[in-house]
Please model this.
Amino acid sequence: MRNLTYKVVERVLPLASDVVMVNISFLFAYWLAFRSGIGGDRRFIPLSEYSLPVVLITCYWLILFLFAGLYESWHAKSRLDEFINVSKAAITGGIILFLATLDLSRPFSSTRIVLFGYMFSQILLVGGGRIAIRSFQRYLVVQGVGRHRTVIVGGGERGQRLFQQVNIFPALGHQIVGFACQAHEESELASRGLPVLGEVKQLPRILREHEVDDVLIALPTDSHQQILDILSRCNSLGVRFYILPDLYDIVTGQARTNQIYGFPLVEISPGLMPSWERKTKRLMDIMASALILFGLAPLWLIVAVIIKLDSKGPVFFHQERVGKNGKTFIIHKFRSMVADAESSTGPVWAKQNDPRITRFGRFMRRFRIDEVPQFWNVLKGEMSLVGPRPERPFFVEMFKKRIPLYARRLRVCPGLTGWAQTKQDNISPLNDLEEKLTYEAEKVRYDLGYIENMSLRMDLKILLRTIWVVIFGKGAR
Model:
């Protein structure tokens, strides 16, 4: 019941507060325009006539706040930071409204005074409401409600000091479940009355059994390889990892500093793409996939007819792939190989000049036409325009065992195209398993480079390079 109260405070109250404060701000703007004399508008318009505009403007601000990331989990973050984010969103929204109502034929308009007053009232009212809610939320955390179940990795001096500091600052939001330590550290921790959950090598089991939310890594500064091994083995468990800042050098490009009430930690693999960019990316996915699928439907109908005339079998090819967080889905393609191409061989990689590829299939693969039905996967949200290419479950399990950090690719939505596809041929001419693994490891390096630098700018760059690759038919199979 206590955790339910916390979730209501974290998720529902901010939205309710925003609705109330946005409407109070609108009333303030109405007063400025028609009652205060500042607005300079002698006309009087009854408030009842603004019913529909109020609904629309409320939706406008809520959508803007959504894109600004104001409805994401706040857990134990700075109230000042949230107020700054509210201010940025309010100023952005005010500028958009200013440009939308700008009248260049008039050197000065009293409506601008009203608009700027409206914008600053949004900052004060919405920001003030958020601070009040987060203060109450912080009170709940201090009382033990809504804390994240946390494990400290490392039972040496660093780990014990970290344990003490977390207990000093309950508003950090961590409930220490216990330690995962080295075998020689267990006796010292036990003598101090500190809970020991097991050895570091047992960490995946510990995280599952104790339903852990966060992991604080306090291993010695020379434990680089061990930390990388922990990340690799626990990557798919949906747990947040933090390390002490003097280990930042080992995760350059994969971590961001996170100041939590003055307690310095480094969060590994946070959401690197801002909320507004993630939502814009999804909007672009929907618009582009709908345009290509439905706008060019007559062309795809012609492609389907040619496929049927070229070889026996269905028009479409369906196959299971592994998506975000390891969730499987069915990918769709135009069939470019003979029907039941793997009926006698099982899962195998395609080869250059593969005899299973049909005549028209070779043409489609050269210009990536066979990939077009995957826009349906993009429209459904199973894929994105840009991201690591999804692989089959059989090969994913193989690569996870043989290629370090391969599982990190599963932290993001797979894509139609990716950084690796613009840097490598679309298919390798390799037949030997070890050579293939080397090729895939290089692809993973490109994919991780994309994940570490995700942005709309990066996506646009990849899309432009992909268009170049498609036009010139590079990587033809």
The chain has 16 helices and eleven strands. Residues 2-142 form one domain.
